[in-house]
Fold this sequence. Notes:
0% of the residues lie in helices and 48% in strands. The protein has strands spanning 10-13, 20-28, 42-50, 53-58, 65-71, 77-79, 83-85, 90-96, 101-107. It is globular, with a radius of gyration of 16 Å.
Amino acid sequence: MIIVARVIEFQGKTLKDGMWIVGNLHHENNLYNQPELRYSNCIYIERKISFDCTIKQLIIPETVGQFTGIIGKDKKKIYEHDMVENDFYTGEVYWNYVYNGWRVAAINENKSLF
């Protein structure tokens, strides 16, 4: 039996200084105590600094993106909402619930998605 592990990680900009960080998504919902993600409440990214030390940093909700599992030609990880391009088009990476997979929404010359 072969077991394939998928890396689940997120990136986001910190609220404090706008720096991009990568780690585990942590969501605190003090009002409802529900597990689903609610962007209206506090979203943190937890980063492991050492074996026994983890820090949480508050994240700007609109910048949160999940790692797609795909590495680009430039050897960088591709995250949800990243802009990617090839010889024909530029587009934004997003999760398609109909096809259950990552897709790219192309951007036309007016900078709108189609």
